[in-house]
Design a protein that fits this description.
Elements (H helix, E strand, L loop, with lengths): L6 E6 L8 H10 L3 E6 L9 H8 L16 H8 L2 E7 L1 H8 L6 H8 L3 E6 L3 H5 L1 H12 L3 E2 L3 E4 L5 E5 L3 H12 L9 E6 L4 E4 L2 E3 L6 H12 L3 E6 L8 E4 L3 H12 L4 E4 L6 E3 L19 E3 L3 H9 L5 E8 L3 H12 L3 E6 L11 E8 L4 E8 H13 L2
Helix pairs in contact: 1-2, 1-8, 3-5, 4-7, 9-13
The structure holds cytidine-5'-triphosphate.
Cytidine-5'-triphosphate binds next to helix 11 and strand 16.
Length: about 400
Amino acid sequence: MSLQDKTVLIGITGGIAAYKICELIRKFQKAGAKTRVVCTPNALNFVTKLTLQNLSKNQVFVDEFNPKDWKPEHISFADEADIMVIAPATANTISKIANGIADNLLTSIACAFSKQIIIAPAMNCNMWQNIAVQENISKLKSRGVEFLEPETGFLACGYSGKGRLCSIDKIFNAAVESLNFSQKLAGKNVVITSGGTIEEIDPVRYISNYSSGKMGFALANSAKKMGANVTLITTKPIEAPFKTVKVKSAIQMQNALDEEFETADIIIMAAAVADYRVKNYSEQKLKKTSEDEITLQLVKNPDILKELCQKRGDRKKIIAGFCAESENLVENAKEKIAKKGCDFLVANDISRKDIGFSSDDNEVTILDKNGGIKKLEKASKSVIATKILEHIANE
Ligand code: CTP
C-alpha cells in the first residue's frame, strides 16, 4: 500500500513499548510516507532521539520552545500531517488530551489537530481498568479518536493482564485504512438508524430485541470518515462525533426519519424495528392477577422502510435496508427487497453465532434492486460498514 504524499505524525509517550515504535516508523517509511516524530520527555527514557531521527529521516521534537521557523511547531506540525498516531499512549497522555490539557509539544499538537488521531494505549492492567482512564477514552472516542485496544498478556511491570501495546501491524494497518478512506460521500446527507426499537408495555416493561446497534454505529462512523454529514437515529445511548437522535419506539423512529427525509441523500435502515407494538400502553405498572395466563394485545407498526420508499417517489435518494434471516438468506432477501421497494438490502445470517447481533464482526450479502448480489466476507463491522457504503456510493 503506497503512502506516497502522506505525512504521518507519530507521537511517542513514556512507556516501555516505545522501543517497538522504531519498527512502526520503518513501516511507514517503507510505504513511502513522510514521517515526523514527536516525543514526550519521558519517551526518551525508553528510546533514543538519535534512533528515532535516523529511522524517521527527520529531526525529532520534544519541547515547544525551540522553534525552527516563525510558526509555532504545534501548529505547523498539526497542519502538515495527514494523520496523528500516538503509540504507545500512557494513561497520563490520554487523560490530558481528553481534557484539553496542552502542557508539552505532543499534547499541544493533539489539541490543535483537526484530522484523524489514532491512539494505541499501553499501560499496567490496573491503570487500564481505572474508571477515570476509561471515561477519558470514551470521551475521546465520542469525538472521533480511534483507539486500538491493548492486548492481554505478560506486562513489563510484572503483571499479567490487559495493557500490552497491540501489534505494530495493527497500528500500521489502521493508519493505512484511515489514510485511504475515500471521500465518496463528501457533502452528502446520510441518515442511518440503529438498535432494536423499544415498545413499552407499562412504565417498567417493554418488548425489544437483541440488536446491539453496533452495525448502525459502524456505518455512521465510516460515513463520517467518507465526508458525509451524518445523522444517526438510534435507540442506544451513545456519544458520537456526528448528530444523533435518541428514540425508543418504531413510531418515534419514523417521526425522527420524517424530520430528516427531505434533506437526506442516503437513508440506511440498520435498525431492528419491531413489527408490532402494544395496543394499550398502561400508564400504571400492571399488577399480577390471579390468572395463570394473560393476553397482551399487539398492533402492527408501520413498515417504515416501505413507507419511505413510497414517499420518495421519483426523487433522487438512495434507500437501503437490512434484513436478519435465520434460513434461506438470499431467497428471503430477494423477496424482501421487492416487497419494500428499496435500492439495496443488506442480508445478515443470524443462525451464525460468530457474526451479527452483539458480535464485533459481520458477514453480509448485499442485494440490489436490479438483481445484483455481492457477498462481503467476514470482517470487523467497521470494515464491513465501509464496504457497504462504498458499494452504495457507486450507485
Ligand atoms: N423495517 C421497517 N419497519 C418495520 C420493520 C422493518 O422499516 N416495521 C425495516 C428494517 O429496519 C430493515 C428492513 O425493514 O431495514 C427489514 O427488516 P425485517 O425485520 O427483516 O423485515 P420485516 O418486513 O419485518 O420481515 P420479517 O417478517 O422477516 O420480520
